[in-house]
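My current task is to audit a protein record that another person submitted. Please read both lines and tell me whether the tokens look consistent with the sequence. Do not assume that whoever made the record got everything right. I have pasted the whole thing underneath without changing anything:

===
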Amino acid sequence: MFSGIVQEKAIINALEEGNEHLTITIDCSKNFTKEQKIGGSVSVDGVCLTVTKKTNDSLTFDAVKETLNRTIIKNYVEGSCVNIESSLSYGGSVGGHLMSGHIHLKGQVKEVLIIGDSKDIVVDTSPEWSKYLFEKGYIGINGCSITIGKVNDTRFQVHLIPETLKTTNLDSLVFGNEINLELDQSTIAIVDTTERILKNKT
């Protein structure tokens, strides 16, 4: 589990295609790598990946075909900037909202509005998932816990404060970019349960 509070930005150092998987190596700080263990979990742009190798300043992961199809990982190139977060430890604080690291779908950036030092971003999603979006609800965008603004059909808006833009890769988003989206699991459970109850009453 993760909190959606990005600890730092890392850089893709190497990408190596294997048999039905992609091996990803990222450069990150020594402070971050020293907390990690082989077999441990790290959120990379919101995707829960298992550490397979580590050095003092790098971590390596394998992404299987299902992960590549569902996330933006297959868009990575050497030099891509990614958000990283260690998995939560028992008793640790949750600054954002609980996230599993399991991406539901990819969204596409449709508008980027610069408002002083902040930005508003409009994201287009799939009709299949739009019923789980509501104003002031939570969503994970590239591993960042974000509060949803206005919702209109399959599109929603988020307001990004200067601190978020400074500490994550969301500041580099432009029209047409794809992003990883993890919907709030509590919202999914409530909506699905309500729909099931109403269906059984008819």
Notes: The longest helix spans residues 185-201. The domain at 8-86 is CATH 2.40.30.20 (Elongation Factor Tu (Ef-tu); domain 3). The helical segments are 30-33, 65-70, 162-167, 185-201.
